[in-house]
Amino acid sequence: MTTVTQIPAYDPSEIEPRWRERWEIDGLYRVDDDDPRPPYYFLTMLPYTSGDLHIGHWYAMAPSDVAARWHRMQGKNVLFPLGFDAFGLPAENAAINNNTHPKKWTYANVENMTAQLKTMGASFDWNREFSTSDPEYYRWTQWWFLKLYEHGLAYRGQADCNFCPGCATILANEQVNRNDEGIGICERCESIVEAKQMEQWMFRITDYADELLEFDGIDWPEPIKLMQRNWIGRSEGAEISFPLGREVNGDDRITVFTTRPDTLFGCTFMVLAPEHPLVAELTTDECRADVEAYIEQARRQNEIERQSTTREKTGVFTGAYTKHPFTGEDIQIWIADYVLLSYGTGAVMGVPAHDERDFAFASERGIPIPVVIAPPDWDGNDLDEAYTGPGTMVNSGRFDGTDWQAGKLAVADALDEMDLGGRTVSYRLRDWLISRQRYWGAPIPMIHCDSCGTVPVPEDDLPVLLPDDAEFLPTGASPLERNKLFVDVDCPTCDETGRRETDTMDTFMCSNWYMYRYVDPHNHYAPIDPALARQWLPIDTYTGGAEHAVMHLFYARFFAKAARDMGILEIDEPFARLFNQGTITKDGHKMSKSRGNVVNPDEWVDRYGADTVRLYLMFLGPWEAGGDWDDSGISGQWRWLNRVWNLALGDVERGNGQANAIRRATHAMIGKVSQDIERFRFNTMIAAMMEFTNELQDIREQGPVDSDAWREAIDALLLCLAPSAPHISEELWLRTGHDGSIHEQTWPEYDESLAQAETVTVVVQVNGKLREKLALAPGASQDAAESAARASTRVADQLDGKTLRRVIWVPDKLLNFVAN
Question: 303: closest CA among 188, 175, 205, 155?
């Protein structure tokens, strides 16, 4: 007989804020650097201060919180911080649109987003929180810039830039998208991007191109590694110098890079970028008007548009010629906008028989198309289309009969002997342009002096503060130029009046190193203490979106390697393990305010509680896949939490029965949940706990249960639920008689032997038809299974008088006799 106890209703609106307040008062998630447990640094990408969190932020952060909590319960000292990416164009543009100051806009958003994030119940160490726009933070961003400058990795030079007239600033190539017509547009405001040459600050990321190609010792998704390798674009080939026969602007040759030196004898024309410095001198008077008109037209196009593979390849003849390195024949020199001065040498050789673009270009202009790599079964006639495959060199002088692969090396080496080229490696990657002509960013800490040139701001004078009274409306020049109090400054070298650099830094400079500041956020003397850096770095696990593959994730790797070479850090890579979650969409589209499809989590938290929202997001499907938000299923998680509540607090008939069944189900659940959290399989983790609660309900309804086994089962359920639903599990832990926070407990130990079923069901077939089901011990041998099957009259009768041909055995599942 059991006494029926009245169970209080599950009320997350009362439970959740109470526990969050308690956790904050107790400093439950504050990390102690002196904790003797092994350190584990788990990090999710910091959010941008956009104003409000949408459900996509929860989708990124709640599963990360689950994993961080799990590692903590595994006995590790887990660092799980969060801050805000606060500088940059979006905040400045939003402030302009709302007629307010970027600083006011940003910090109001930080306050709002912090409150929303705390509602999630995540175990962030808020004692380490900062915004990248805090002067205490960007002081050290400027310090990093000075170190890069000191070591020759930061420099100022002319650069072809993508200029956004809408945002009135320079964009990196990665920040330019294409519209339906293939025209380059700003990823933020969708203005058509223009080409512009300006003096800019850059980082020598190309110095690390080869090292950035390697991913040894880190666990990163293959697609991210592939995107970064493609972005670097390493190509092995040859440099080839074409003699001009005279000196032009100090040069007597034009040099090209090619991956196909074996096709050199098929070169019948050369194409220069319109901006190439030799164009003006090379162009003949007869062609000058056409060339100058074409150059002006090219200036109105950005690099993305010029590189489009779908647009027609245009060009004009300069009237000039160069000489073929081997034959001495005249080679026409053209200009075309598909050749960029910023890539390679700004010149390419045209081999129309073996390049599709060159074939189209030459065919339209009557340029010869000689075949120099023989296709299979080639009859010696002209080609109808470019042949880009393998073959044997023909019409190539002394190289005739050479295999094309061997020919690449042979031609390159011959050029080397002639001092007209040789083997080399080229990269698509260009140095990182960090200058921005906007207000809301970290000022570049440099001073321009007429006497001393460009000199760094002394470290003791950092930070160079953004003036609050700056006029920040975009004009194409830096807003700081118009602030005389900011611009005018004494030169630190000669004390004469100098002029501050008025460009600000790309916001990715701020996110290059934020993960290191979390380790030592209150240090006033250095960005990070070396001892703490050795303790915590590299980050053990980093989670975030794959859209950052060739921006943040790429720049952060460069920064770590540069910091290592400067003697500041001792790591080769910033993130040991990277996991990319998918994207939550609404009605099939990415959430955005312009579409009006943003889902605010606050509404659903008010209705169901944070734990339910967390669970529902993780139950949608594989974390890496993302999914479409559909609120029709969220009530299912709410109902399940109510079942957990009632199961944990409800009465049960006590006795000595079903201990083995309870423990088997318990340990099977522990094993599955542990495995799934480690692999970020949160949807199947929740499914395993749901299945377990169903099993416990079935067992309870079958009669008396063993008290110890039942208590173990409920405890294990709450402990396994704690990372995913931290509030309800904390409440139930207290209500079921435990002391201390559930989040300070040890993860339940999995016993594989207890998880094994006492028997398994083996299906017995004769010629594929079901004849018997056997209850056997797990792992039973084939011989044991056959003996048990033959003892069954239903099997024996089917085999009687037949010849056994073979036996199909699937351990613990199937035994099939094939007989005739």
Answer: 175
CA 441 – CA 444 distance, rounded (Å): 9
Mean pLDDT in residue range 630-634: 90
The alpha-carbon radius of gyration of the chain (Å, integer) is: 34
pTM above 0.90, yes or no: no
The DSSP line for 582-630 is --EEETTEE--TTTT-PPPHHHHHHHH-HHHHHHHHHHTS-TTT-EE--
Angstrom distance (rounded) from CA 256 to CA 415: 13
Give the range of the structural domain holding residue 412, as residue numbers without chain letter: 236-370+405-426
Separation CA 187–CA 162 (nearest Å): 12
Which amino acid is residue 741, in one-letter code?
S
Under a CB-based contact definition with an 8 Å cutoff, are residues 421 and 255 in contact? Answer: yes
CATH number of the CATH domain containing 293: 3.90.740.10
- Residue 637 — φ and ψ, nearest 5°? -70, -35
The answer to whether 479 and 470 are in contact (CB under 8 A) is: yes
Pair 363, 463 in one domain: no
**Helix, coil or strand: residue 337:** coil
Residue type, 682: F
Distance between CA atoms of residues 614 and 634, nearest Å: 10
What is residue 2's predicted lDDT score, i.e. its pLDDT?
Answer: 46
Tell me the pLDDT tens digit for each residue of 273-293.
999 999 999 999 999 999 999
What is the helix (H) or strand (E) element at residue 545, kind and residue range? Answer: strand 541-545
Question: Are 420 and 470 within one domain?
Answer: no
Ordered strands of the 347-350 beta sheet: 316-323, 330-335, 269-272, 347-350
DSSP structural state of residue 771: E
Are 584 and 610 in contact by the 8 Å Cβ rule? The answer is no
Q: Do residues 55 and 591 lie in contact, with contact meaning Cβ atoms separated by under 8 Å?
A: yes
What is the average pLDDT across 716-741?
98
Same domain, 647 and 728: yes
Banded model confidence at residue 797, pLDDT cuts 50, 70, 90: very high
Give the integer Cα–Cα distance in Å for 66 and 81.
14
**How would you classify the pairing of strands 814-819 and 760-766?**
parallel
What is the pLDDT, as a whole number, of residue 535?
98
739 assigned to some structural domain? yes
Collapse the DSSP code of 321 into the 3-class scheme (helix H, G, I; strand E, B; otherwise coil) and give the result: strand
Domain count, the chain: 4
Peptide bond into 778 cis (omega under 30): no
CA 652, 657, 661, 666 torsion: positive or negative? Answer: positive
Mean pLDDT over 250-270 rounds to 95
DSSP letter string, 68-81: HHHHHHTT-EEE--
Q: Supply 257's token pair.
A: 């890079």
The amino acid occupying position 392 is T
- Taking CA atoms, 318 is separated from 244, 273, 290, in Å, by 14, 12, 9
Measured in whole angstroms, how far is the alpha carbon of residue 572 from the centre of its chain?
A: 18
In a domain, 651, yes or no: yes
Asked if 510 and 138 count as a contact pair (C-beta separation under 8 A), the reply is yes
CB 688 within 8 A of CB 736: no
- Residue count of the chain: 820
